[in-house]
Structure formats: C-alpha cells, structure tokens
UniProtKB/TrEMBL annotation:
UniProt source species: Paraburkholderia domus
E.C. code: 6.2.1.33
Pfam family, one: AMP-binding
SUPFAM superfamilies according to UniProt: Acetyl-CoA synthetase-like
Name of this protein: 4-chlorobenzoate--CoA ligase
GO-annotated molecular function: 4-chlorobenzoate-CoA ligase activity; medium-chain fatty acid-CoA ligase activity
Coiled coil regions, renumbered to chain: none
InterPro entries named in the record: AMP-bd_C, AMP-bd_C_sf, AMP-binding_CS, AMP-dep_synth/lig_dom, ANL_N_sf
Comp. bias regions, Polar residues: 515-524
Keywords in alphabetical order: Ligase
Domain AMP-binding enzyme C-terminal positions: 422-495
Region annotation (Disordered) ranges: 504-539
Signal peptide: none
A biological process term (GO) from this entry: fatty acid metabolic process
Amino acid sequence: MLDLGRTFLQSVERSPTALALVDGDLALTYAQWHRIIVNVAEGLRELGLAHGDRLLVVLQNRWEMATLHWACQFAGIVIVPLNWRAKPDELDYCVTDAGVKAIVYEPVSAEAVTQSPAAQNLPRIGLDDAQGRTARFAALLVERSHDGGTQTTRANADDYSLILYTSGTTGKAKGVPRRHRHERAAALAHVAQNLYRHGERTLGVMPLYHTMGVRSLLSMAMVDGVFVCARRWNARFALDSIEQYQISCLYLVPTLYHDLLADPAFAEIDTTSVKKLGFAGAPMNDGLLKRLSAAFKPELFVNHYGSSEVYTFSIDQDATQKPGSAGRAGINTRLRVVKLDAQTPEDLAQVGEEGQIIADLLGDEAFEGYWNRPDANARSLRDGWYFTGDTGFFDVEGDLYVSGRVDDMIISGGENISPVDIESVLSLHPAVDDVAVAGVKDERWGQRVVAFVKRREYVDAETLDAYCRTSNLVNFKRPREYVFVDDIPKSPVGKILRRKLSAGEYERDERGQPNDGNDGNHSRASGAFIATHTETTKE
C-alpha cells in the first residue's frame, strides 16, 4: 500500500495546476503546496526531528496546520495534533505521554505551552510572534534544494502517521496511534462511502486534531479536491465560503449544521453548490434531519458512525429514509452487538435488543491499541474485537441504531433507558430548538429521566409532556422532568456533555418560569414540570 506522502504526490502528478488549499487570501495549487510541504518537512529534519519522532501541533485550522500534517507524512514524523483550547496540564500530559520532540503553536495556544513544564525543555516553533518560542515557523518555509528522497517520502505504509488524543469524559485522554495504511484505508473508504468525485470542494472546519477534520483533509487529496480552511467556526463565514468557493460537500457535526440553518443570512446566500451532506460525531435528531433535507435538497445525505480508534463503524447513505439509523457496516469493517454485560465477542444480543457495539480489529481502518495504556487496552480490546462503549441494536432489516453510551444509560425503576430516541421525539416539536436527555439522581427511582430543552419559541413543560404522550415513545421512557436552558453544553466537536447536565452545570432559560430564586440546578423548584412516575414496565 502507498504511504500518505506518495498519496499526496498522486494529486500533484495528476493535477499540478488544480487549486488545492485556500486560507483567506492564500490560494495554492497542488504543485505550489507540494513545494511548501517538502520545504517544511526538511525544515523539521534540520531542527533535529528524525523518522518516527513525534511533533506536537497546537494550531487552529489554518494553512500552516494542514501543511504540517502533510509535511510529517513526507518526513516520516508522527504528528500529534492537540486541541488549541487545551489547558496547560492537558498539554503537559500529552507532551510527556507521547514523548514529543518539538512543539508548533500560535498565540491562542501560547499560554498552555508556556505554562507546561515539559514543554520548556523542547524546541518551540511559534507562529505570529507567539510568546515563548525558540524558533519561528517562517524558518521552516525557507526554500531548499531537494533530493529525490524528499520529493517522494521518507515513510512507508507501516509507519505511524499520527497520534490522536481522545477527549474522553473522565480521566486522562488516551492516545490513538494510527499507521499510514490505517489512514489511507480510512480516507479511501471516506471517498467511496460519500461518493466523492474528482475535484470536490469541502469546508475544512472540523478541527485537524479530530478524526473528522483529518478525514476531510486526506479525502480531498485523494480526489484532487480543494480544502478551504476555516480557522474557527463561524456560521456566516461558512456560508460566505460555500458561496465564494462553490463548496460541493460538507462533513460536519450536527451542531454546526444547526448553526448554519439558524444564521439569518442562510436564506440570502446561494448554497446550491452543496450536493452532498455528511455528519458524524454525534447523533442527528429527526427534526434537524428534516430541516436540512428541505434546506439543501442534497443528492446524498450520509450518516457516518465511527471513532478515532476504528474510523468507520457504519454508514447510512440516505440518512432521512430511516431517521436514527446508522446503517450498516462500512466497507472496511465488521460489526456486532453483544449483550451489555458481555465479556466476549460471542455473547451476541438478539435482534432489537440493546447491547454494546463492537468492531473487528482486523478491519483495514482499525487501530492496534492505545499509546502507553495497557489498562485501556484491557478494557476495550478483547479477542480481536474493539468494545466501543456505545450502545445500540440491529433492527429486523439489519440496520444499526446507536442509542448512546454505556456510561450515558439511564437506569430508572430498574429499566435501562437510552437518551437518543427520546431526544429524537422531542426534536420534532416545532418549538424545540435543541434538546438533550440525561439521568438525574432520584431517591426513589435511582435516576429520573430529565429533558433539557433549548426553545425556539415559548413552550411549557406540560405541552411537551402531552406531546410525548401522543408520540410512539413508550411510557417508561417519557421524561419525568423538563428543564429549559439557554444552551446545551457540548464538546468542541459537538458531543452532548450529559454529565454537566446531570451535575446541574447549565444556565436556565427563565422565560415563563417562576422567579423562585433557585440557583440553576435541577430541583423541583426550577419551574420544571415533574410528572408522576408510576409506570416502570415496558409497553
């Protein structure tokens, strides 16, 4: 199999004058970008980074970040991209855990770098006069004479390409090392499963420290396409970029699609160039699916379910046909659903029975184990299968439904309740803008089902409860409390942070609620409606 450096060279050789990268006023063809990439690769080597060394990069989605990703692939250096919002202790942990040899950063991430003790012992390459630097990024851009080896690559398909650090909800982040062949297989599958054509154009807004952002970057090179950098998410900038650069495909988390539709400029800006929509990172509720389908009228609407560890679990290429379905296993994957308490991959759940989703580690996109974490490997890797920690079930037609996380499961009155299908029902109410469901401690029931609702227009809890009673939602899953909030807390890539909701870390929307002096946590006095919880058997 080709390594990623040679993969990029394919596009340079096929389409040297085609537009490849855009960042503001900067626009580079494949030939121009390749020249810069190999200069940066040699510059990293001159700084002392050798084949297999790790480079920590703490940048937004700017052209330098995309360039460094490719330069590392050419040089055989392992890129370790990190969230530019990382706190000093998080950065310090990753520097030590990955054993990095140098850091590249910018002013927005300078505080974390300068306050990391481990970082002070390393070369620190700063952009834009970043505080604390020992070298300037401009030094990497100096034009150099190149030998034949640099023009191709110093890596092979079995070398590590990058280490992604999973955000995690508890404990330290886990490093996920992925080889060139894993990354190339995943990018090829992404192209195939999203039906990308030659010359596609995408908005590079998903962060390049996240697998969705990396996949967008690599897949555009696969099809000689265009990667338009979006340094920070801004819905109006995204809409303007769609129109200006004739973006043809979007691959975003549901939260960002929600923001696009909510922007007042959406109705005025021409988005007809967008023919393909793809989403991942979090479930998309039924209401948003319908609104996007009506607004964009896409030729293809893909629900992609995956992870950093095994990029693609499943694909549904017609997300609106069976809302909530994650489709079937991707072209490089085998999937099973095992019982929630299963210890082996052979303890299969029945059709329609909720269990834990697992994936075959022999798949071409699958990682081989966590970096320096035998404890995490022992929990997640069993008999050649990756236990995802996600819950779901197969329906009678063989389609997969993802219902949540094992850790998000609500146990109320002895019943296991997943939040996702409750959220999908509530999302269809016209007054609901966004919704998340979480379990809150309850003395009698263990946990009670609470719906946290961001309103589009005024609606009260009694109305939403009546709406759920007339839906197809089984009664024991019906929320017992409704709390109206200003916003739903989410991670930088759009995952609902249910633990924050359960812990009372939110701001209430006070419209129409009694002024009871409550401090914002989830009590009966919050103005929320609490139903009588008498039904505990399935209907």
